[in-house]
Amino acid sequence: MSLAIYAEKRIAPLLDGASRPHYTTRVLSSPVRLRPGTPISAKELKHRLKRLNYKRVEAPPNEGEYRRTSDAFIVNLRDFDHPFVRSTPNAAAIEIHHGRVQSLRLADENIPLIEAVLEPELLYELSGSNRVRRTPLAAGDIPATMTQALIAIEDRRFFSHSGIDPRGIARAAWRNLRSHRITEGGSTLTQQLAKNLFLTPERSFSRKIKEAFIAVYLEARYSKSEILRLYLDSVYFGQKGPVSIVGLHEAARHFFALTPHELSVPQCALLAGLLRSPSGYNPFRHPKRAHKRRSEVITAMHREGFLSPTQTRLAREAPLGVTRSAHITPRDADHFLAYIQRALASRYSDEAWMTRGMTVHTTLDPWLQEQASKAVAGAKHEAALIALDPRTGAIRALVGGRKFAESAFDRATQARRQPGSAFKPFVYGAALRSGPNRAAMTPATLLSDTTRAYRIAGGTWVPRNYSRSYQGPVPLREALARSLNAATVNLAAEIGPKAIIEYARELGIRSPLRPTLGLALGASEVSLLEITGAYAPFANGGYRVEPFGVEAALDTRGSVLEFHHRQPRVVLNPAEVYLMTDLLREVVRTGTARSLARWGLAQNAAGKTGTSNDGKDAWFIGYTPRIVAGVWSGSDIPTALGITGASAALPIWAKFVKTTGGPASQGDVWPKPESVRTATIDPNSGGIASAGCRERRTEIFAAGTEPTTPCPLHSRGPWGWLKRMFSSEKPAPKNSYR
Predict the structure, then answer these.
(1) What is the DSSP letter of 587?
(2) If you ran DSSP here, which 8-state letter would residue 394 be given?
(3) Do 357 and 379 reside in the same domain of the chain?
(4) Are residues 446 and 516 in the same domain?
(5) Is 219 in the same domain as 208?
(6) Residue 282, phi-psi category: left (phi > 0), alpha (psi -120 to 50), beta (remainder)
(7) Are the CB atoms for 513 and 430 separated by under 8 Å?
(8) Could you write out the DSSP letters of every residue in 168-187?
């Protein structure tokens, strides 16, 4: 009676799923979707195919192969499962010209394709503290050949006994007696399952009694196919370093880089033979022993009538076929994995999610991640980089530090520091909006770049420019481009810290912001992730996005446990977006980020440098039509390093963006909306340029804010023209840039 109670309390719940076995959770990257017009170079595509272990061939490619022609890549794409993206298991011809996909078509039929998709990469496999690689096995996953190999070598009467096989026990005892050693066990597969799942490895009479009882119980309650599935789902096949390989799914992948359905006769025979001694017959270490053991299994299969003489001969002659070319987990994305772990642990128990056999589809682009890691690794100081898809907020690359092995602290998401002038776009963005008793400013609005003392707690504060020189009246455009501190604080005093905070909150800044004028110079701490995300509305047409790393999480049956479903919302109108982008492009063209020209990124990049007091922290947040990325550089312990955003952070950003293709574009990729007007002005007054104005600039304005009065500083008409022609006045020299 006690054994029956034991069975109902301990065995049935485990097999019925009430007590969950440990399965491996897999973390996958995002698939790469290629469509006509997608920015990608031939070099990048080749690199991506190499990462995915596509083999280059000269003949028409099979699945997982590709070849180059004079004008295209012919890629036989692999099938894959993804909750939101359909695979393209066809041979696709991908033509690339001038850094973009020019056309897609089916290679064999010359039919146009809407898109071609490269499968996700396996980033990580997690199994908690037990270190087990195990994937759930359904009965339909077991090939008939595997069943035959297992039955032939382990339990010939499996389908006729009731859990215990007296004939098998007697046969094993006789053979062991003749050999004067134990060469064969008498346990059935059902008994082995009972031992693997419920009992210890101890050799005792009491354990054998329990094993036999549990085997009979299993046979009474479950079908033979279910017992076979449970056995092949839980049996140990060997080790990969410190990780145990458990179950047929993982064994097929570990030894052959295949799924169970793809296993051949000799491969099934090898796996069935391994079960007697996974270490002793390890084909990587002991190929001769493994070959001999495989032959024994093949002979047994022939003896049982599962193989014909010809099949037996061919199976014996086949090479072992084991491969070490299965995907090796990269180490570039350790900080990203830690970020994903923190996100999922907050929604599931800390350890449980790693052992429930989940499939986690992430937003990471492994190729971009590799380039980001290389860019950060070359930094002179500690550094972090994050790159987002500006349209959705999906995290495409995340590097939290130079070396994860030395420090797992994630400086991209966990650290908060003063962003310095990288915060200024929120000040100027707020100024472009009207407020209570205040009209909206424009890029031509004159700001006061002069020293002024402000009363603060404990005394007074006089904001200083980096160059210690001051321009007096200066256009808003120039004040931002040259990162003039005095002009920015005077602007913040005019519009008020409240307006700045409201604007920053709308775009995505969540950290506490102190309502003081120091806010204008980035005195409140933020994370690299949030400030990079808050730049996204400038790049994507005015939509606020929430940065995220998990696209979807599925359980062992493929049912969706969660998925990202937040929709971006409009926070900026088209005119605001265009004005802010043009102002940040001015920073790149003529301002503190003009060194981007050395990387060929001056035409279609926008962004802002930032430096905190004493050069403790250096920042650059910028974007192209393809990506928005942020870089921080400095020291974990705040130290006066004397670095600037332009000298320490910008080069990392530039190296990353340049290596990943840069703004592969032609013409103006940020077209001017109808709600933006242009006017030729005198930048010294902001008025409409007249005949007497020596300096002229074509400036942009939100409709209704363009100037309507002529420049008050210079004469109009012929007299103004004559004065300009004969004037000895020279333009004032410009200060050096930071």
Answers:
(1) H
(2) B
(3) yes
(4) yes
(5) yes
(6) beta
(7) no
(8) HHHHHHHHHHHHTS------
